[in-house]
């Protein structure tokens, strides 16, 4: 699966409630269900980001969300489904960042810098992003398919580096695809180190120095 589609993902549909008759208050009930699902997803993100997939229980998520376990199970079949939904939301958010950078219409090297710096800020500030990244590290412990990591983001970076290369803004000897892999690998390592060593307080500086080292004039 593409891990960083630039298009926003389709709106999530509610679970099929089967034979339940339609009532006049269906709209309100649906609004409440959407809100509850969002609360559960946010609680799952908080739990996975801080404690990791293996130790979190559905009961923990229910308590954090302030709902019953039954309410969690109404929206998500099990803990694996919660992890999948959090990971999908993570890529949805990365996709929004990519789309916003694209729409800012920057010069290609500036776009790469903007993408990485905005992603760094999201890793620092957004629990859903922190949870998605942590779940990807733990993917071998999760009994469900998560979106393929890294490749979508690398493709986005490659596109801008190719443009810069073709416009003569990078030395001819530079391989845009390899440089994109280097940038994404360095970003991934830097965000992880910044998390472990400094609770992400220095992630922006660490990513800025990667940009300086790899694409000096960006
Ligand atoms: C991004 C991560 C962490 C790459 O899958 C992905 O795209 C990503 C998964 O852990 O960061 C951002 C350079």
How is the secondary structure organized here?
Blueprint: H1 26-51, H2 58-65, H3 69-75, H4 79-103, H5 108-125, H6 127-137, H7 151-166, H8 176-198, H9 203-214
Helix pairs in contact: 1-2, 1-4, 1-6, 2-3, 4-5, 4-6, 5-6, 5-7, 5-9, 7-8, 8-9
The chain binds 4-(Hydroxymethyl)-2-propylfuran-3-carboxylic acid (LUB).
What does this 3D model show about the protein?
This protein is mostly helical and 218 residues long. The chain has one domain: Tetracycline Repressor, domain 2. 67% of the residues lie in helices and 0% in strands. The chain has helices spanning 26-51, 58-65, 69-75, 79-103, 108-125, 127-137, 151-166, 176-198, 203-214. It binds 4-(Hydroxymethyl)-2-propylfuran-3-carboxylic acid (LUB). Residues 3-4, 119, 133, 136, 149-150, 153, 184, 187-188 line the site of 4-(Hydroxymethyl)-2-propylfuran-3-carboxylic acid (LUB).
Features:
9 helices, single chain, mainly alpha, 218 residues, binds 4-(Hydroxymethyl)-2-propylfuran-3-carboxylic acid
Q: How does CATH name the architecture?
A: Orthogonal Bundle
| Count of DSSP H/I helices | 9
Give the ordered list of helices and strands.
HHHHHHHHH
Q: Any idea of the CATH topology? A: Tetracycline Repressor, domain 2
At the first level of CATH, the class is Mainly Alpha
* Low-confidence regions: 5-19
Shape: elongated
Proportion in β-strands: under 5%
The CATH homologous superfamily is called Tetracycline Repressor, domain 2
Largest sheet: none
**Number of folding domains?**
1
Annotation, overall tally of beta strands: 0
> What bound compounds does this protein have?
4-(Hydroxymethyl)-2-propylfuran-3-carboxylic acid
**Structural class based on helices, strands and sheet pairing:** mainly alpha
End-to-end C-alpha gap: 30 Å
């Amino acid at each position: 699966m593409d891990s960083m589609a630039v298009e926003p993902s389709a709106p999530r549909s509610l679970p099929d409630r089967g034979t339940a008759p339609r009532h006049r208050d269906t709209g309100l009930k649906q609004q409440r269900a959407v809100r509850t699902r969002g609360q559960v997803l946010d609680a799952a993100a908080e739990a996975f980001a801080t404690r990791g997939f293996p130790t979190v229980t559905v009961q923990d998520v229910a308590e954090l969300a302030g709902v019953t376990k039954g309410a969690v199970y109404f929206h998500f079949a099990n803990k694996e489904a919660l992890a999948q939904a959090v990971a999908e939301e993570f890529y949805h958010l990365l996709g929004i960042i990519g789309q916003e950078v694209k729409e800012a219409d920057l010069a290609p090297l500036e776009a790469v810098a903007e993408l990485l710096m905005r992603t760094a800020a999201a890793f620092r500030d957004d629990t859903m992003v922190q949870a998605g990244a942590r779940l990807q590290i733990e993917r071998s412990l999760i009994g469900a398919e998560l979106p393929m990591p890294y490749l979508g983001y690398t493709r986005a970076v490659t596109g801008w580096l190719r443009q810069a290369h073709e416009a003569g803004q990078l030395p001819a000897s530079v391989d845009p695809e390899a440089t994109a892999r280097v940038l994404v690998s360095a970003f991934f390592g830097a965000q992880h180190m910044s998390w472990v060593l400094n609770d992400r307080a220095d992630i922006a500086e660490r990513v800025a120095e990667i940009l300086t080292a790899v694409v000096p004039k960006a």
